[in-house]
Design brief:
alpha/beta; Rossmann fold; 2 domains; 4-stranded parallel beta sheet; 12 helices; 43% helix; globular
């Protein structure tokens, strides 16, 4: 089996997804991956900043297609969710159509769609969230997930508007926000509802502490990539979502 080539479309100020995604998929027991990025200018996480960033999508898709990836992940969750219910379907379809016009058969996923996919894979109905966003944007994320059929039982917004600063939020602050949530009747915790807010070292620790499945935008993205490639979902040390097929690979 050759190396699976993964394309990432990321905000220009995002550095976390390009570290967490390779770190996750490098643990896969039966496949190798390479990662190739293209960037959309964005510094401030605001409705205006996100709209300006999304306007660069077609250029970025053309650029990443030149690398001939097998899968492309549109890696900005909130930029999709601000578009309203079902926007991840529209964005993924538009990108796939653009790629097909240029002769690319790359599969297309988005961080927004991957989070929905991951929560459904865990059979989660009642969900709690930690987000880095300003409250009005966090409310749009909550509304988006509720439109997908989930009940958001509790959530926190850390209210960091500068996307560079989001990438520097310490794990202790994220865990403190998670501990402040009412998790008594929750099926799953999204400990980082943002591909830029670092959380990979927290996922397993939080699962042990809270006793429920814990996922992040990054682990959900990795799950979606593996499923799209028909590869076993068996990544150690990254939460229950990425252990779905571990028994199969161990047998």
């Amino acid at each position: 089996m050759g190396i699976h080539r993964i394309g990432l479309v990321v905000p220009s100020s995002n550095v976390t997804v390009e570290t967490e995604m390779p770190a996750l998929l490098s643990r896969h027991p039966g496949a190798e991956f390479s990662f190739h990025s293209t960037r959309m200018r964005m510094h401030t996480v605001s409705p205006e900043g996100l709209a300006a960033m999304n306007a660069q999508r077609e250029r970025c898709v053309l650029e990443i297609a030149d690398a001939a990836p097998e899968v492309i992940l549109y890696a900005c969750l909130v930029a999709v969710m601000v578009g309203g219910p079902g926007e991840h379907h529209r964005v993924e379809s538009a990108v796939a159509e653009q790629l097909a016009t240029g002769g690319s058969q790359a599969l297309v996923r988005s961080s927004a769609g991957a989070l929905v996919e991951g929560l459904r894979a865990l059979d989660a109905q009642r969900v709690a969230l930690v987000t880095p966003y300003m409250r009005p944007l966090a409310e749009k994320v909550v509304a988006y997930l509720e439109a997908e059929g989930f009940t958001i039982s509790d959530w926190r917004a850390l209210e960091v508007a500068d996307n560079t600063e989001v990438g520097c939020i310490p794990g202790e602050q994220v865990m403190a926000a998670a501990r402040s949530l009412d998790l008594s009747e929750v099926d799953a915790l999204v400990i980082s509802c943002c591909v830029q807010m670092p959380s990979l070292p927290l996922v397993e620790t939080a699962e042990r502490e809270f006793g429920i499945p814990v996922l992040s935008a990054a682990t959900a993205g990795a799950y979606s990539i593996l499923r799209s490639l028909d590869l076993p979902v068996a990544v150690p040390g990254a939460g229950r979502l990425l252990r779905q097929d571990s028994a199969v690979t161990a047998s």
